[in-house]
Amino acid sequence: MATTDYAAIDAELRTTLSNKSYLLGNLANAAAIINKHMEDICWVGFYLLHKDELFVGPFQGESVRRTVPLYHGLPGKVMKTYQTQLNNDTTKCTCGNADGIKKSQLAIPVFYNREPVGVLNIESASVDRFSEEDCEEMKKIALLIQRVWRHMF
Questions:
Q1: Residue 56 located in a structural domain
Q2: Between the CA of residue 116 and those of 45, 58, 62, 74, what are the distances in Å?
Q3: Is the pTM of the predicted complex or chain greater than 0.85?
Q4: How many domains does the chain have?
Q5: How far is Cα 3 from Cα 109, in angstroms, rounded to an integer?
Q6: 29 lies in a domain?
């Protein structure tokens, strides 16, 4: 499995997000920072909840569908369960792999005022890319990102 310098992600996010600027700018920077420090990923970004759909937010990687119907795909499953979801072999899942590129996917809920507002989604072209450590560390990263959500309003 690929290695990730989570301490570097944490430090850079804390520095970057400390200015508490515009939400979308913060999310764009968060995606760029994660992309820079995680090996063997092909897409990282955010899906943002609006009414009954998830809209693609800031991301790094190939273009994707603009919306995902609520409760569809792995990001949708996150919104249904409010729990982190890991799929290390998307070829064996009915959660969808429309582009045929991603082989592993990690999706983490992001909350604001205890309500789900979005999903941090990370994809790899390699089967078995993500470990339990990746899940736990990315949950901590999501908590850091949640702190800037209030600046959207």
A1: yes
A2: 16, 17, 25, 15
A3: yes
A4: 1
A5: 22
A6: yes
